[in-house]
Amino acid sequence: MKGLTKLSDLCWEGLTLKHVSHRKIVVPYLMFTFTALLFELFLIVIYGLTACLLYKYGLSPNLVFYISGPVLIIMLGLTTTVLVSIIRNGRITC
């Protein structure tokens, strides 16, 4: 269990750029993360519209549809947390 904790800490340090502060690395990573956030929001809107249309026409979605909703929410939470963590720490230097 101790190894798994260390692995998750290393993964979080990598995602939040804990040891990186160079502008040429941080700015494109922030742009990529922001783009991922916008794409995930787009997917959630499409998911909601699909759910409404399925309900309106009386169709029942399959298991993959029900699984993809929580996966989208988890991905959105992780992306938002990473983005806020990077911005809050102010990792950008010259």
Describe this structure in words.
It is a single chain. The chain is an all-alpha fold. Helices cover 80% and strands 0% of the residues. It has one domain (2-89). The chain is built from 3 helices and no strands. Helix 2 (23-56) runs antiparallel to helix 3. The protein is elongated, with a radius of gyration of 18 Å. The N and C termini lie far apart (39 Å).
Strand content: under 5%
Overall structural class, as computed from helix and strand content, comes to mainly alpha
Q: How many independent structural domains?
A: 1
The separation of the N and C termini measures: 39 Å
The share of residues in helices is over 70%
Q: Low-confidence runs (pLDDT<50, min 5 residues)?
A: none
Number of E-state strands: 0
Largest sheet: none
Q: Output the helix-strand order.
A: HHH
Mean pLDDT: 90
Shape: elongated
Number of helices: 3
What gyration radius follows from the Cα positions, in whole Å? 18 Å
